[in-house]
Amino acid sequence: MHTAPNSIVVLTGAGISAESGIETFRAADGLWANHPVEEVASPQGFKRNPQLVYEFYNQRRRQLMSEEIRPNPAHSALAKFEHDFAGSFLLVTQNIDNLHERAGSENLLHMHGELLKMRCQNSQMVFDISEDFSFDTPCRCCHSPGNLRPHIVWFGEMPMHMNRINEALERCDLFVAIGTSGNVYPAAGFYQTARVNSAQTVELNLDKTGSGFDQHIYGKATEIVPAYFAKLLL
Ligand code: APR
User: Fold this and answer.
1) What angle do CA 185, 188, 192 make, to 5 degrees?
2) What is the pTM for the complete model shown?
């Protein structure tokens, strides 16, 4: 950075939670290698085989609720930075886990939904859920079974909070993407939106992604994220 930033947007992806023990999507042994996307992460797949989709997210939820899964130093560094930084800070995550909030992040938007929430397909009401649920679970608002679905954005659906995200991107002067492969839009295009205001764009990732950021820093999130954000405060 030439001058200290005033307004920062950070985007995170599966790579920030990898060292907490949650699989990424596109690694050779990642989630999408074992579970075809169209079966477990599309409205059509849910219509065809709801049981399979409920079970897929029940498994992910059980894993997230287990004692082994905890926020790592990268999540904590972002929460500490938000607390110490005097300017405006928005954290946008594509992740459906709750590790950012458990680390203490506050100004946080889950653009792809949340594993610990379910939604009534009739009323669109959203409810907290930390256990399994399925087709047979009676809805808390309409009290009949069959209406609840995971509060997750599937392929072909509109990501959440896009107005707030775009507004923040258009006025930020630093955009940082962490642990995301840049395969899924609109998140993959955020660094271009940030350039509307000539923001500096930085990628922190384990490997090269092919996206055209101004600066690339490669390494494990638990190492490069704390180091990068500690320097920004100097
Ligand atoms: N530290 C930093 N980066 C890492 C680490 C790590 N320890 N481990 C993996 N990565 C990087 C990988 O190199 C890869 O570039 O994180 C990225 C993860 O990419 P994906 O698996 O594609 O995950 P993500 O970009 O979050 O996926 C976006 O796609 O499947 C949908 O809705 C799902 O939100 C998800 C979206």
Assistant:
1) 115
2) 0.97
